[in-house]
Amino acid sequence: DTEVTQTPKHLVMGMTNKKSLKCEQHMGHRAMYWYKQKAKKPPELMFVYSYEKLSINESVPSRFSPECPNSSLLNLHLHALQPEDSALYLCASSQDPAGETQYFGPGTRLLVL
Amino acid sequence: GESVGLHLPTLSVQEGDNSIINCAYSNSASDYFIWYKQESGKGPQFIIDIRSNMDKRQGQRVTVLLNKTVKHLSLQIAATQPGDSAVYFCAENRDDKIIFGKGTRLHILP
Q: Quick one: what percent of chain B has pLDDT higher than 70?
């Protein structure tokens, strides 16, 4: 099973809303990632969790708050987002924190109004 | 600056022909490269990878070639099929991060 699942598939939120994106994998992977992808652009790394601890934050604004409750779950809490934050948010996981062979979920398409 | 990039943003190929997607990288210290396929509405899907101690690696209908001398990476798809229509990204693993190139959209002509 090489599946990474993400919920919800689509999300529309206002700039004052608080919402959360969820990601789950049951491959026993010890590293999990959040990426942001704008239309016609490559994915851009946001956060890396290694053994359930935040290891990389690519200078992401604090209105994005990641959380790793356990080794299978990864959340991204959203608060006071801006319209320019509208994008596809991708979760990925890999066997080890070296980041090799990352498996991606289908993404959550977020629209901020 | 250092980057991973692609020569062409789009590529149109006749169904049944071979496709070649190219990628240039500038970080000579990179030692691991990956090709991903992203279909519309989906996340990137791992296709094939190659380490810098190799110059060629083959998978099912796909071959990746690495030329470290000119810092060039290519993905060859044999007998291109309609299901190969997607955006293809080359990527390098650097400092425990995957850095994606700009992507090439592959169009399959009937």
A: 93
